[in-house]
Model the fold of this input.
Amino acid sequence: MATVSSETLMEQFYNAFETWGLPLFVPQLIVMVVVATAVLIFVAVSVMFMVWWERKISAHIQVRFGPMRVGGWHGWAQSIADGIKLLIKEDIVPEGADRLVFALAPMVVFAAGFAAYVIIPFGPGLIVSDLNIGVLFYISISSLTVVGIIMAGWSSNNKYSVLGAIRSAAQAVSYEVPLVVSILGVIMTVGSLSMTRIVEAQQGVWFVIPQLLGFLIYMIAAIAECNRLPFDIPEAESELVAGFHVEYSGMRFAIFFLAEYANMFTVSAIAAALFLGGWHGPLLPGWLWFLLKTYFLIFVMMWLRWTLARLRVDQLMNLGWKVLLPLAFLNMGITGLILVLRG
Amino acid sequence: MTVTQAVFYLMATFTVGASLLVVLARNIVHCAIALVFAFFGVAALFILLDAEFLAATQVLLYVGGITILLLFAIMLTSRISARGGKIMNEQVGISAVVALALFGLMVYANLKGFPALVPPMLAASDNTASLGRLLLTTYVLPFEVVSLLLLAAMVGAIVLARREQGKD
Done:
């Protein structure tokens, strides 16, 4: 998470290595590994919290208590116990599976989800790398997830997995288009793809006010990208058992699960940065504001999941191509018109 | 050898290896998956050339769009993915000639050095912004021609995919 929060410290660190006569890439590599580890730990802890939180929210929506026993207070340690259970379970590879692709698929999905954390601006300067292609990096790297899902579905040698993978690919391709176009309004207003610049431009007014339509389209498309209800056709339990990951168990399944929740965090964090002003907010420190906004959006996604019914395939396609996409283009056109009129 | 060079050779080997797998793997799904890695390697080479926008677009369009559509088509025709297809067909001779000619051309061009068509941009702080500006000013005609071509291809695809009324 923290790379350049105190730049003088970093300079001292680099200088120390220079005096020892080591080439510059050695300290750079060390910094990269440390930052990557920090992000990985953050992802793991955050996902464990989100799983527990989702179980509690779903339980309360259904007038239940949810996990109550493990750890004492409201079952807070349930996710840790589940994680340990998944770690020590047997690793099963189904007969007739394509072993190499089967093993590679969870890694591809997780790598794609993990790489997206590079451009999340947790606070002023608290960003792994402020790429000048920022948002575009996220959009392109997240498309890799679908490749991993197709690999998982096909290599499992199970018709339900293949069906889930095909549905997932169709859904992702359909909803990626409105997602990208909905972000364009913000990018046009700021004139930059860099996440830091986009957040800085929201010093006064958060983009959710001028770009309300864009925000709504983004959130709907993002939920679809995460394969969550009401867009969970790819893993509809009642039709496909579990979709593309039917045959996965133990740690490999855990990695899919981790990636799914990590993706949920990413899309919410991007929404918080693009539309809800990122780290801007009174009194509290920036990173706390950012996390509060992100977790609020995650809460909204959980809330929707446990209150809405699943869309049929045709409704899903109609919504994506005939409603969201034209609206996203309309939003882009109006934004462009206003920008031109304002000069 | 500098770090950049080392990374270049690493990524170049990776790309060439993945590309070889694309043409040599017996299972067509393996070919498609190898293609993903090949495209990724090319994106990495773009990054080494400071062309981040091109790299991101490469991944977005080729990995996120084209390969997924390819895989999608393979999944829908279940018989292909199960059978290990032949690597060579009867046109192997002609393709060898074409490939060799292309290889020779590239070797020649690399040895001779490319003439600079466009002067390299000086200390471009934001590649993406300059790229966008150039596309809509100096190169607006080629840009629009390509857009028209894509539109025509799209219309063609729709005409091909559409069922005639009354016929099925």
